[in-house]
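hiii so um. not sure if this is the right channel but i have a protein structure encoded as tokens and i wanna go backwards to a sequence. like what aa goes where. can anyone help
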């Protein structure tokens, strides 16, 4: 069984598009014989994110962590308790391609680190910023980027290293580093890139939004 874990903090505007894409990816995986469960971890949500998730017919788990590492950890624990052998992670402001889950499993490794791409640049993002971003991003096989928006890991390997650490930022990077330290095989692939938001009001500090802001600052 595949468990898809999506942390969300007040994502009512973007969560629906995310879940539509994940539902399609789940449909393709189920056509290939896999069972898929989708979970939205509602972390201190005070908006209509829960209602959006329920309209899409997915599972929800409410937590009061205010911490993306704890939210992902809670979601992974939920999936493993339900018998998941594979954990797939994305973010509430992202949209996965239809072959996302099938492609992760086809890699044949215990960990799959995928790439992301900006779905739509905002008017305030200059051509210089876009050029700088693209010059620093390796959208190819063998890249070394780590994104919680496009990450897959076997439940067995995940449990070996104790799972996500309860970090407010870079919990995805730490997870992969812990797995690397154990010598767990990792696929670094660009075959199922995930579209992500280029918004400024990012929910996770030191995440993708802050990375873009940092690039703006050096121009």
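sure thing!! here u go:
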């Amino acid at each position: 069984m595949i468990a898809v874990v999506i942390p969300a903090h007040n994502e009512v505007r973007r969560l629906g598009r995310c879940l539509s894409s994940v539902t399609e990816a789940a449909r393709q995986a189920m056509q290939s014989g896999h069972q898929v469960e989708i979970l939205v971890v509602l972390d201190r949500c005070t908006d209509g994110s829960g209602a959006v998730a329920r309209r899409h017919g997915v599972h929800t788990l409410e937590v009061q962590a205010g911490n993306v590492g704890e939210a992902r950890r809670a979601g992974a624990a939920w999936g493993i308790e339900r018998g998941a052998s594979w954990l797939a992670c994305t973010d509430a402001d992202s949209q996965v391609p239809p072959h996302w889950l099938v492609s992760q499993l086809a890699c044949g490794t215990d960990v799959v680190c995928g790439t992301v791409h900006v779905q739509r640049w905002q008017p305030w993002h200059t051509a210089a910023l876009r050029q700088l971003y693209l010059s620093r991003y390796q959208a190819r096989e063998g890249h070394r980027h780590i994104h919680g928006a496009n990450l897959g890991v076997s439940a067995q390997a995940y449990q070996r290293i104790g799972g996500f650490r309860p970090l407010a930022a870079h919990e995805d990077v730490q997870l992969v580093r812990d797995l690397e330290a154990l010598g767990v095989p990792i696929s670094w692939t660009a075959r199922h890139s995930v579209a992500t938001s280029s918004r400024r009001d990012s929910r996770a500090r030191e995440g993708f939004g802050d990375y873009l802001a940092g690039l703006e600052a050096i121009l």
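oh and The chain has one domain: 2-218.
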